[in-house]
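Sequence, please.
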């Protein structure tokens, strides 16, 4: 995630047209699908565990509240950016990943409550995700959405300068993550966990291979762009990011810095975007050679790790007052 933003903001124009840059963009571009997938995974695991401790209805209400909370934080993030950057006021309504993540979490929470059982929830997550994936090329091109107010249309399909992320098809990553979370929660013995991870690795490989093979077939849509709207590219990215989960399990990744940054991923997102794109990063805008941008990414991650540690120490000694608890998902 940090690398994606540093590459986008700081790499000089002369280095933006070679294979190194495009390879970096592709690899870094997997961060957003992974961010959404893990958000859905965490939501369903937390809901299932809370349902066992309290009630299903209570777990559903908490999951729903968390989705609206993230959606509200998206606007607070825009207010902060506006105060620091003094851009045009329409920036407050721009749609970024937190906007889509929050609404996707709301949808996932509703489906979780409707499903009632783990199998029912998984099937609802899968069916809704597939509907979104295969409808995306049609939604992106339909003239029917043109009559909507622009700020609403931005949530359904990207608009240059207004919305990079949209519900079609980004919401599907979160719903499929929620489906995966149901499977992980159900794997409560070492044998079942091993079977789940092996199965997930096999499914990820099939998904990547199937998406790649399907990309050579004639398109079934009147208009489709492989890199933005095609289901084939969606499944290729889905397979790659899903494969990272059994890979991490197989390697037994318990590296302290990785865990520290991962547990505070929303906090890292919140502060580093302004550091890269805002006033602090402006002197480096489109200035660095590709190699220097890689070094800058590592250096920024080291700095962010230190900031997370300081944040954790401060919160251990100073619990959030009630008026600031909306920032809980960011600061935890």
């Amino acid at each position: 995630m940090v690398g994606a933003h540093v590459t986008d903001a700081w790499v000089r124009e002369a280095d933006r047209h070679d294979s190194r840059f495009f390879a970096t963009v592709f690899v870094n571009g997997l961060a957003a699908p992974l961010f959404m997938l893990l958000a859905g995974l965490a939501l369903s695991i937390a809901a299932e565990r809370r349902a066992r401790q309290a009630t299903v209805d209570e777990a559903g209400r908490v999951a729903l509240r968390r989705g609206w909370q993230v959606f509200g934080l998206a606007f607070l993030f825009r207010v902060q950016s506006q105060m620091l950057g003094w851009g045009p006021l329409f920036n407050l309504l721009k749609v970024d990943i937190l906007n889509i993540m929050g609404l996707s979490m709301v949808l996932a929470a509703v489906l979780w409550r409707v499903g009632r059982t783990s199998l029912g929830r998984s099937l609802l997550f899968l069916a809704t995700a597939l509907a979104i994936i295969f409808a995306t090329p049609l939604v992106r091109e339909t003239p029917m959405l043109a009559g909507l107010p622009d700020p609403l249309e931005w949530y359904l399909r990207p608009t240059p300068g207004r919305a990079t992320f949209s519900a079609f098809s980004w919401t599907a990553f979160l719903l499929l993550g929620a489906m995966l979370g149901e499977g992980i929660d159900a794997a409560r013995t070492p044998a079942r966990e091993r079977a789940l991870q092996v199965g997930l690795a096999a499914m990820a490989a099939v998904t990547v291979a199937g998406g790649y093979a399907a990309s050579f077939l004639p398109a079934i849509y009147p208009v489709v762009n492989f890199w933005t709207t095609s289901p084939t590219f969606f499944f290729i990215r889905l397979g790659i990011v899903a494969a990272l989960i059994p890979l991490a399990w197989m390697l037994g990744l318990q590296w302290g810095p990785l865990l520290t940054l991962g547990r505070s991923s929303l906090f890292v997102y919140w502060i580093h975007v302004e550091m890269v794109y805002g006033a602090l990063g402006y002197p480096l805008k489109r200035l660095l050679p590709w190699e220097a941008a890689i070094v800058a990414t590592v250096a920024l991650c080291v700095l962010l790790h230190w900031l997370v540690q300081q944040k954790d120490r401060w919160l251990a000694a100073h619990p959030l007052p009630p008026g600031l608890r909306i920032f809980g998902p960011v600061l935890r």
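The two ends are 19 Å apart (CA to CA).
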